[in-house]
Amino acid sequence: MNKTVSILGSTGSIGTQALEVCEKHGLKITALAANSSVKLLAEQARKFSPEYVCIFNAEKYADLCAELAGTNVKILSGMEGLCDIAALPQTDIVLNSVVGMVGLLPTLTAIDAGKDIALANKETLVAGGELVMSAAAAKGVKIYPVDSEHSAIFQCLQGNKRSQLSKVILTASGGPFFGKSYDDLRSVTKEQALNHPNWDMGSKITIDSATLMNKGLEFIEAKWLFDLTPEQIEIVVHRQSVVHSAVEYNDYSVIAQLGVPDMKIPIQYALLYPDRVSCPTGRLSLTDYGSLTFAKPDLETFKCLSSAIEAIKRGGAYPCLVNSANEEAVGAFLHDEIKFIEIGEIVSSVLEKFPSSDINSYEDVMKADKAARDYVRSLIS
Ligand code: MG
């Protein structure tokens, strides 16, 4: 394995697991970037000796320089640094695992530089799906999904004709509040929302999993990654998170990908594609599980999910608007400014509040992003 990898978001849940995978298989790390975790980033830099590190939060730049004094690592900061790292000529593949739509510009920059991308930053495709996919096609860049569901779909497509795919079945764990009524959600606390039954993840995605916004974002992500219509995507709640998703072909054969719920499997497949080698994770024992269950999602209770689906059906700026409103609302919830149930109310209100508009450029995305965030802030303060 002599691939070289840059990791954007190296101190997060995906980033740290990706480093484990890289270490196990001897992949060379050319660059690491983090938002603000100076100590961990410096520790990773000392261990993996990348040529570059970047701290997104520029206020932490001096701290990082102090931590890495005496090393040869070149230190960058801010969005400029993130984009420089995304475009390094000596990197084969860029793993983008930053949180939120801040990942869009580095993704576009990596594509422009002809870098293949392992994409864990789903907001990139939600906010700028059309821009990203058309730029990737024009540059011949490959986007390997890291999200477990999209990796599953990607794996189920291998060796089959894409033109003979009839639909995809996107599985959802249902989150910690599966089976609850809308009224039950009124009393949800932050601690309950941050406690996911199957996956250990960062706080933004854990809240998104509790509201089911995560599945809404993944619905949009699947549409763009696999060139589907919204009608071709079925969401099925599968509590055990063993079937990571499935595809149906024209002959009604359904092919699924299964495994233990551990992100190292999809991370490794994205970084080492098409190789399948031993992964630092557990084996799946179906008999330990005994039974697997499947149910329809509750689109009435989980307004974030229904809003995201409606947004991609409408198209234009709506997916970006609901995503940005959600990012802002989740931030407010994590800062105790709003209740859990208000996240869904805020996200769904965006569909009523904003008239339809088009996305033709990165600037259009940023304009929609700002408008949605300003709107949410005006509701809160
Ligand atoms: Mg997922």
Give the SSE layout.
Blueprint: E1 4-8, H1 13-25, E2 28-34, H2 38-48, E3 52-55, H3 61-67, E4 74-77, H4 78-86, E5 93-96, H5 104-112, E6 116-119, H6 122-139, E7 143-145, H7 148-157, E8 165-172, H8 190-193, H9 203-211, H10 213-225, E9 233-237, E10 243-249, E11 254-258, H11 264-272, H12 286-289, H13 303-314, H14 318-334, H15 340-353, H16 362-380
Helix pairs in contact: 2-3, 4-5, 5-6, 6-10, 6-14, 9-14, 10-13, 13-14, 13-15, 14-15, 14-16
The structure holds magnesium ion.
The site of magnesium ion has 4 residues, from helix 7.
The structural class is alpha/beta
Order of helices and strands: EHEHEHEHEHEHEHEHHHEEEHHHHHH
**Which range best describes the helical content: under 10%, 10-25%, 25-40%, 40-55%, 55-70% or over 70%?**
40-55%
Instruction: Bin the strand percentage.
Output: 5-15%
Strand order of the largest sheet: 4-3-2-1-5-6-7
Sequence stretches where pLDDT stays below 50 over 5 or more residues: none
Average pLDDT over all residues? 96
- Helix count, DSSP H or I runs of 4 or more residues: 16
Radius of gyration: 20 Å
Q: How would you sum up the global shape?
A: globular
Can you count the beta strands?
Answer: 11
Q: Strand count, sense and closure of the main sheet?
A: 7 strands, parallel
Ligands in the model, by name, code or SMILES, are: magnesium ion
| Terminal-residue CA separation | 52 Å
